[in-house]
Amino acid sequence: MPLPFLQTILPVLLFAAPPSGGDNPLLAPWKGPYGGVPPFGEMKVSLLAPALDAAMAEQLAAIDRIASDPAAPTFDNTLAALERSGRALDRVYALFDIWSSNLSTPEFQAVERELAPKLAAHQDRITQNAKLFARVAAVYDARETLCRTPEQQRLAWLYHTNFVRAGARLDAPAKKRVAEINARLAGLYTGFTQNLLADEAGYVTWLDGERDLAGLPPAVRAAAAAAAEARGQPGKWAVLNTRSSVEPFLAYSARRDLREKVWRNFVLRGDHGDAKDNKAAIAEILKLRAERAKLLGYPTHAHWRLGDSMAGTPERATGLMEAVWPAAVARVKEEVRDMQAVADREGAKLTIEPWDYRFYAEKVRKAKYDLDENEVKPYLQLENLREALFWVAGRLLDLHFTPAKGVPVYHPDVRVWEVKDGKGKLVGLWYFDPYAREGKRSGAWMNAYRNQERMDGEVATIVSNNANFVKGKPGEPVLLSWDDAETLFHEFGHALHGLSSNVTYKSLSGTDVARDYVEFPSQLLERWLPTPEVLSRFALHVETGKPLPQELVKKIERASRFNQGFATVEYLSAALVDMKLHLAGDRPIDAAAFERDTLAALGMPRELVMRHRTPQFAHVFSSDGYSAGYYSYLWADTLSADAYEAFTEAGGPYDAQVAGRLRRFVFSAGNTVDPAEAYRAFRGRDPGIGALMRKRGFPEPAAAGAGAGPEKPKPAKPQ
Question: What are the Peptidase M3A/M3B catalytic domain coordinates in residue numbering (predicted)?
């Protein structure tokens, strides 16, 4: 249950005395090597609630001291003091969040339901403290004299903006109502997430024999067998209700009836009309968000969410999406025609349905490009690709990984590496948790357990990458699809963004940047997977050890724009529905009807569905995180496509000068500068949409030159 603003105002430092809370080990500063590490060896769910209660009390006491300080507000006695507050809370919350995402047992879920509203109320008690905000505003108003560095001025802007956007200027009744809404939303978000986890764990498709396995390649069969054995069914095969299990099955299973069953289980998560159905929660979430936005002075939730983004307004974000949508839909129609032709030639006597799309797309790929995904998969071993990530980090950003020693983990699957720069200085730890398991949320992500900073001394960051690859039998290599390999690089890009951070203040550190900018470094890093340097060194056959043949590399290059219609429409439909849901204001929303009617109005091709249907759209309904913000992936990919062309225009993907600018102005800068200014410093100009369209193989719009894409709008309110 992410709390983005809470994380902004609660820095993690290691050298404060723990608050009162008995002998609870979760409250203590982290001990051990690397400046201290999370105490997973002492972690018990029963300790979480008392630890969070004590840590919240400790921070509120610190807030009261700051707000009541008789001295005139200064940067040091107000903003720096806020940066130092909440140290214990941030440590305990990091553990809480790790358990929520990775080890969500029934015992933990009960604690989570209790604590989520408390955490929201705690956040409001800080942002609604009138005396505290008066001091923050005083420093902000006099920032040119009270702040000694540009970074301090940026921190003053960030605190002031966040307080105002949270309702610091409201009158008492409005503040009270905002707090009530936030507490209720916290509970709804927790319920949404727990319902989704239940549907992912509760719907497993069991395969009993060769007839059920028809068409599945050896790697997919092995993963299904391992999943069944892990669930106490040796000798059977299990298709789990998670993307990493479902998508390979849909791509290869010759059993159309089973494809439909697996597809329906997946797209109906949270939508079964039972106790775990999420549609009623969605309606209430949307209603409360709309009410809160109006109280805060914004016409809709979308306007509130985008007020501090690069896009600035929903209209700019929607404009980018609508510029890409027609070309993507047109490409889908071409793809469907190709697939239907294959089905007709084979005498399948069917009309392409959503559960057929991936299956026949693979046939078209093979026919058009002589490329079979099964030819590539034996070369994509998880461990080799992890080494590839390290190699790219070294070449591109001068970061170097070695196994860490003496570091506790929260699950046996987790491994840890220490990370140093080229001068041998420790920059952080990287935790890697790659495998699916019950109680772990689906998808892939990056977390920061501790942000880099140096306000009171150097503090090294701690980051993690988490995924849901299907684990094989002991000692058996895990093979990835090309899409999974891209996901691995994407999430590692987030990790490198955190590990490269080189700022003074924790609140400006690492990936704590605008939502539609944070995906830029991660989407950019995907471009290094297909480079010859990576493939020749790390794409080694699981049996022969030989590198990926050049002939196959060329096939991958020729097919790089294949199925872009599907990928773009699948994503964009979800992003557009998200935006339109949050532009609807306070009118009552029936989630199912709104989704259906909006897609019909958009001209959604009937042969595919949104990447995340509303009842399972965790990006949007498990927190405020990506609400009215799922467009961010397209916005950021506009930046990443343009940025990669900076490399191709120079000496190639490993050009040292371009890489140096990338590290200095993007990866290490955090939120110390406006993201549009940071991009211009790297690229020398604003981005345009042309590179994005070229990357996807779509026709370029007439105004595709520099500046036609997401350049910086006028300053966003509030100021």
Answer: 249-696
